[in-house]
């Protein structure tokens, strides 16, 4: 592609070279024509020396020449200026032979036009002078009677000069075409290389063209696209890792209870002399493990439901303070049974919100289950409510063991537990906080962990006010 663009530029500039050659030739012709056209219309052509010369210079009428800004001088055979009217560029009354010769030879280089005629009868030179307005001295003259050697030499010189001119013009056109092509092909090469790196899997590839033209916009677009692809691939990789971890966690959490169920069932089937006490213990173990597996599957089903487009809340307008008081009342029995203490700080206000009461109460149920499961009896559970601009913030806190620092970022992910050993005695599916957070977000709010809370743990439930 780059080679083709370079060739296109070269072809374009070669075409420009040909046009330039044609225009130069036309300019030569036009200059020659213009020179003749101007020469024929200037005032000096209307009053030439031959038109006013007389045998006796005293009879010369110079009034028309002087009237039009010119001058008339007469120089005799002794190089004396014997007559002068109007414009005088000689400035002397007596010239030497060398001075007069120099005047005749250098007159074409002066900003004046001199028309000089010799009168043989009167033995004098008549000089008619006009100021030069503009001089176009270019003309092409050919005389067939010229000496052949001179003609040949002149032709060679003209041909050589023309060849040199055309060569320089061609080199400039070629060099400039390559320079201009490089201004496009080099950025394209860098963009192509960046695209190749992206295709090869290097999503950190960026392009720095150091330009401020349209390629700069293309560079920004490319870099933005690369950054988005890198971000998406990072998220995709993270999602894939989370998916693998989720599958492993599900397998692990289902394997243990199912293996226990299978083992105790086999014992019941194979051991013929089971006592009533043993039979009850085995059945109790089967029941507990099946309950554990069923709880895990129910939570997984609920979590997958929330990720489904068909998942819909049934929100109603409700007064959140009164609703929260009812929730706290329902939390008291399980907290007292677990030996926990509690503190509630709910203002006497009328703050309307829209929420799905059964779904939203699941947040408090899950938070309470976690607090009871991972903390010792005597732990204090506190629930408070405050307003923040357009939101209502509910704080569910405890003064228990808290959340380890290494779990703060991942605590709301599925199967993340404070108990790293995944101890079955603590119970739970490891999905409670993930479900609670999804429910909060479904209400256009959020569930977060207050990392500034030093004594135990504090979860902040935020929902918008009406």
From TrEMBL:
One of its GO terms (cellular component) is plasma membrane. Keywords: ATP-binding, Cell membrane, Kinase, Membrane, Nucleotide-binding, Phosphoprotein, Transferase, Transmembrane, Transmembrane helix, Two-component regulatory system. It catalyses: ATP + protein L-histidine = ADP + protein N-phospho-L-histidine. It is found in: Cell membrane. Its main location: membrane. Pfam families: HAMP, HATPase_c, HisKA. This is histidine kinase. The lineage of its organism: Bacteria, Bacillati, Bacillota, Clostridia, Eubacteriales. The gene is arlS_2.
């Amino acid at each position: 592609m780059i080679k083709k663009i370079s060739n296109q530029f070269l072809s374009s500039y070669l075409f420009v070279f040909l046009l330039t050659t044609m225009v130069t030739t036309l300019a030569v012709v036009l200059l020659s024509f213009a020179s003749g056209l101007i020469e024929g219309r200037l005032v000096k052509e209307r009053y030439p020396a031959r038109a006013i010369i007389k045998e006796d210079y005293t009879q010369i009428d110079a009034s028309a020449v002087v009237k039009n800004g010119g001058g008339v001088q007469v120089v005799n055979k002794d190089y004396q200026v014997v007559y002068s009217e109007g414009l005088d560029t000689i400035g002397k009354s007596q010239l030497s032979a060398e001075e007069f010769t120099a005047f005749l030879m250098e007159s074409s280089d002066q900003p004046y036009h001199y028309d000089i005629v010799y009168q043989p009868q009167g033995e004098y030179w008549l000089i008619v002078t006009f100021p030069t307005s503009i001089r176009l001295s270019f003309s092409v003259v050919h005389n067939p009677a010229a000496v052949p050697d001179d003609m040949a030499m002149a032709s060679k010189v003209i041909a050589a000069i023309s060849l040199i001119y055309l060569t320089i013009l061609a080199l400039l056109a070629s060099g400039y075409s390559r320079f201009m092509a490089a201004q496009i092909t080099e950025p394209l090469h860098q963009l192509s290389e960046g695209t190749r790196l992206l295709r090869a899997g290097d999503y950190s590839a960026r392009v720095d063209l150091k330009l401020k033209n349209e390629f700069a916009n293309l560079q920004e677009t490319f870099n933005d696209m690369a950054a988005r692809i890198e971000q998406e691939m990072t998220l995709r990789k993270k999602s894939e890792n989370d998916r693998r971890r989720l599958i492993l966690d599900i397998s692990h959490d289902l394997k243990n209870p199912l293996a226990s169920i299978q083992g105790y069932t086999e014992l019941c089937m194979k051991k013929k002399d089971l006592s009533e006490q043993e039979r009850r213990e085995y059945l109790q173990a089967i029941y507990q493990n099946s309950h554990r597996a069923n709880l895990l599957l129910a939570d997984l089903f609920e979590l997958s439901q929330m990720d489904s487009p068909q998942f819909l809340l049934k929100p109603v307008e409700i007064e959140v303070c009164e609703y929260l008081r009812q929730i706290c009342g329902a939390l008291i029995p399980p907290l007292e049974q677990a030996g926990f203490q509690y503190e509630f700080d709910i203002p006497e206000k009328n703050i309307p919100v829209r929420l799905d009461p059964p779904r939203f109460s699941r947040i408090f149920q899950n938070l309470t289950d976690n607090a009871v499961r991972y903390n010792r009896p005597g732990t204090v559970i506190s629930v408070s409510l405050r307003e923040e601009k357009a939101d209502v913030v509910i704080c569910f806190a405890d003064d228990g063991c808290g959340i380890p620092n290494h779990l703060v970022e991942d605590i709301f992910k599925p199967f993340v537990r404070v108990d790293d050993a995944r101890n079955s005695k603590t119970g739970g599916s490891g999905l409670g906080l993930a479900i609670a957070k999804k429910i909060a977000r479904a209400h256009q709010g959020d569930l977060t962990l207050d990392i500034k809370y030093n004594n135990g743990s504090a979860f902040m439930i935020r929902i918008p006010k009406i």
